[in-house]
């Protein structure tokens, strides 16, 4: 079982740091560990991001709702996922999605001001942060460029590529067939035929009110 030092050193924004860095971080930074039970809400859309959060154990469901169509893209993510880092600065500093615990989940968090002190303390933290932000800033442009097809598959690939993170364990699209058909710009029968076809490939599983994409990576190939 990994030690706390090893767990922190494996987090995306701590990559490349040594045990001395972690020791200094733990000595100087008041960190909090919050435990959530299955179904508990961790954050809500619009809630101001004042803390940077890391999933230490368990999983969460990150729910992006397209309100005009009542569709929700849900991704499950586990240990190591960073929450809120890309909303600490800028014009929009509120969570764009709801985060819900999926089972017993432990989160390490500390304040924005403390993270700023960490960034100034060593260049490696700043480089990790810049890389983290750059990957997310580039993702929409790449998604539109790579998945330019106007068919159902291309449209849903763009949705998944933009709204979910590469580390997502599972992605699902929740909503009615009618709303999903309107999002794709097709009639309901055409969408149902597409669902039957892609479900037969084993890539997607249909359940009442949602489509489950087992592997984000394979769906985007």
Q: Percent helix among the residues?
A: 25-40%
Write down the oligomeric state.
single chain
Low-confidence region ranges: none
**How would you classify the helix and strand content by structural class?**
alpha+beta
Q: What letter string, H or E per element, gives the SSE order? A: HHEEEEEEHHHEHHEEH
- Tell me, briefly, the overall form: elongated
Main beta-sheet annotation = 9 strands, antiparallel
Radius of gyration: 19 Å
Q: What is the overall pLDDT average?
A: 91
Q: What percent of residues are in strands?
A: 25-35%
Quote the distance from N terminus to C terminus: 34 Å
Question: How many separate helices?
Answer: 8
Please give the number of β-strands: 9
Write the layout of secondary structure elements.
Blueprint: H1 4-9, H2 19-28, E1 32-36, E2 41-43, E3 51-66, E4 71-77, E5 82-83, E6 98-111, H3 112-121, H4 123-146, H5 152-163, E7 170-174, H6 177-184, H7 188-200, E8 204-207, E9 210-213, H8 216-219
Antiparallel strand pairs: 1-6, 2-6, 3-4, 3-5, 3-6, 4-7, 7-9, 8-9
